[in-house]
Amino acid sequence: MKLYTYPASPGCRPIAQFIADHGLTVEQQIVDLQSGEQYKPAFTAINPTNQVPVLEDGDLRLPECSAILKYLADKVDSPTYPKELKARARVNAMMDWVNTALYPAFGHNLCYPQVLPSFKWEDPAHQSAALTKGQARSRKMLGVMNDAMLGSHAFLCGDTLTIADYMAAGILSLGELTGCDFSPWPNVKRWYERMTAMPNWQSVHAPLYAWAQHTKGPDHVRV
Predict the structure, then answer these.
(1) pTM of the predicted model, to two decimals?
(2) CATH architecture of 85-212
(3) pLDDT band at residue 36, thresholds of 50, 70 and 90?
(4) What is the rounded distance in angstroms from the CA atom of residue 105 to the CA atom of residue 156?
(5) How many CA within 13 A on the CB side of residue 30?
(6) ω before 53 within 30° of 0 (cis)?
(7) How far apart are CA 57 and CA 49, in angstroms?
């Protein structure tokens, strides 16, 4: 198997974490997003949407973090993707929520416009308005996550680690770039600390922390 990846990407790091935790042998080929390698013909032929991650396994070429995590979990029969119908449905729903609610609010509307030039609004007034909206949406999603999803549970889908936790942790880790503090949501904070304490977290997410050394500052809008 081969994974086309970019080590700092929040869509790639959950897969790298899963691979490390399960001791899988997967060739990882870095696509240099900073130089625009994803737009060159060679990678466009692999994924016309010019995005990582992409997993190749024989004649299968599979994009999207959620799909790749599910495929790998099924391939190795991992308990992180339960086979019981209702339990699996809950994991699927949680991963959809991460993709359609948490990531747009926290990633695209709050963190990215402050650390990625391509997401920043040129007009300062538009930038400020966008960040205010992103902050409000992110706080709402964190409240939902804290109260309705985690509660007293250890993980997002109950008391057992699932691939939904891998995926959500990759998104919330973007807060490292702007110095976010999840203390107002104690269940989220507890869960995030549990995820970052996993044995392979520091090695897998080292590129994120290296990036954060260049992005943290007092002027960021945070949750």
Answers:
(1) 0.97
(2) Up-down Bundle (1.20)
(3) very high
(4) 18
(5) 9
(6) yes
(7) 19
